[in-house]
Amino acid sequence: MATDVRDCSITFDTAERVYKVVLDPETLSVDEIATANARTAERKERLARAKPYAEFVAEWSQKRPHPQALKFFGSWPDAKPNREVIRI
Predict the structure, then answer these.
(1) Sign of the four-CA dihedral 76, 80, 86, 88
(2) All residues at 6 or more sequence positions from 74 whose CB lies less than 8 Å from its CB, including other chains
(3) pLDDT band at 41, cuts 50/70/90?
(4) Distance between CA atoms of 29 and 3, rounded to whole angstroms?
(5) Which terminal residue of the chain has fewer beta carbons within 10 Å of its beta carbon, N or C?
(6) What are the C-alpha distances in Å from 10 to residues 1, 2, 16, 19, 67?
(7) How does residue 18 score in pLDDT terms, banded at 50, 70 and 90?
(8) Strand, coil or helix: what is 36?
(9) How many angstroms separate the Cα of 27 from the Cα of each of 4, 17, 21, 70?
(10) Distance (Å, rounded) from C-alpha 54 to C-alpha 71?
(11) Is the pLDDT of residue 62 over 80?
């Protein structure tokens, strides 16, 4: 991850916020203990937000795309085309 930050593949902020890798801002070396603690904390937060699969599916099944999106992409939930697509 430090190499990715050095090579500008990702930002310092992305390493910390997305990947939970704690880097020394001056040397860009990985703080192994702080990284392990950050990842453990993230796992705990994810588990706190988690819900049983059946509950997730019931909630997800109630969601619908915005009507403006359906105007372009088809019907819901069967995804039937609502217009002819012309291919060039």
Answers:
(1) positive
(2) 80, 81, 82
(3) very high
(4) 9
(5) C
(6) 8, 9, 10, 10, 36
(7) very high
(8) helix
(9) 13, 19, 14, 50
(10) 30
(11) yes
Pick from 22, 31, 28, 36: which is nearest to 8 by CA? 28
- Each domain of the chain, given as residue ranges in start order, spans 2-49
CB neighbours of residue 12 within 10 Å: 14
pLDDT at 85 over 70: no
Asked if 1 and 30 count as a contact pair (C-beta separation under 8 A), the reply is yes
Q: 20: phi > 0 → left, psi -120 to 50 → alpha, else beta; which?
A: left
Q: Tell me the three-class secondary structure of 45-81, residue by residue.
A: HHHHHCCCHHHHHHHHHHCCCCHHHHHHHCCCCCCCC
* Structure token pair of residue 2: 């430090």
Quote the CA–CA distance of 14 and 53 in Å, as a whole number: 29
